[in-house]
Amino acid sequence: MSVRLDHGEDTLDEVHEINVTPFIDVMLVLLIIFMVAAPLATVDIAVNLPASTAEPQPRPERPLYLSVKSDLTLALGETPVSRDLLGGTLDAAANGDKDTRIFLRADKAVPYGEMMEVMNLLRAAGYLKVALVGLEKTQ
After folding, report:
1. Rounded CA separation 23/82 (Å)
2. Cα–Cα distance, 104 to 67 (Å, whole number)
């Protein structure tokens, strides 16, 4: 004697809804990764930097890079700047905050006198916090 309890229905009902929760989780993780990685992108001007053995310091949120290229031209970020307009351009980039640290990068071929001239231009513009940028030297 056998009893059938399912009443002969062997088909399952199809659900026509997409579960978007895993998709949203992945998108939020990717958004966070790009939000963290985007400000860390550096300037793309080719400068042959000297190496240093000093400990690397933490980077600020929006660093201002002033580059002295091998042909002795200046660039603030990726924008070329003439020496006589350097003060006004820095004021615009730093929103007038003279306590902003300026990261000075220079090619190895730039003479010491030219570096001092650029640092004097920064001092004349009122920017006294200057950090020199170099490559990390492996020992």
Report:
1. 49
2. 6
Whether 122 and 66 have beta carbons less than 8 Å apart is answered as: yes
Separation of alpha carbons 86 and 44, rounded Å? 20
> 10-27, pLDDT tens digit by residue?
666 777 777 888 889 999
28-40: pLDDT as tens digits:
999 998 888 777 6
Q: How far apart are the first and last CA of the chain?
A: 86
Instruction: Please check whether residue 38 is in contact with residue 98, taking contact to mean a CB–CB distance below 8 angstroms.
Output: no
Residues 52-61: contacts with CB under 8 Å, at least 24 apart: 52/134, 52/135, 52/136, 52/137, 53/136, 53/137, 53/139, 54/134, 56/136, 57/131, 60/101
